[in-house]
Amino acid sequence: MLTTGLVQYLLTQPAVSYQLAQGNAIQPIPAPAQMTDTAGNPLYPCITVQMASDVPDYTLTGTAGLSTTRIVFDCLAQQIPGGYLVARNIALAVKAALSGFQGILPDGTEVFMAEVVNVVDLYSPDAMLSHCSVHVLVVYSD
Known about the structure:
This protein is α+β, with helices and mostly antiparallel strands. It contains three helices and six strands. About 20% of the residues lie in helices and about 45% in strands.
């Protein structure tokens, strides 16, 4: 599955993984409700992943075997001094890792093109989180 492969790929990128809580804090939406797990380990900073759209390509005889999907990576950090920069630096690392990516993901999904189409700074005042989103269009073999 594309999102699984993208997460596995990002976790192999030191510029991304070293900035995350426990080195592996990437998960599907929603973001963790608590700042730590039951053992007291931090859950932030983290990345949540969602597939915003998935559009298959068609030919006159049916599906072409390709799809274009928009994946949103929300990079989140606690709103403490420097929290915005943490979220922003994670977003920039995700952007660098995926911009122009072509190849086979760790789960076997073939990616023909990954294009970063938007990077947005946000703030979640109720959750006290700094938030930077990276939107990526991916053309892949389905």
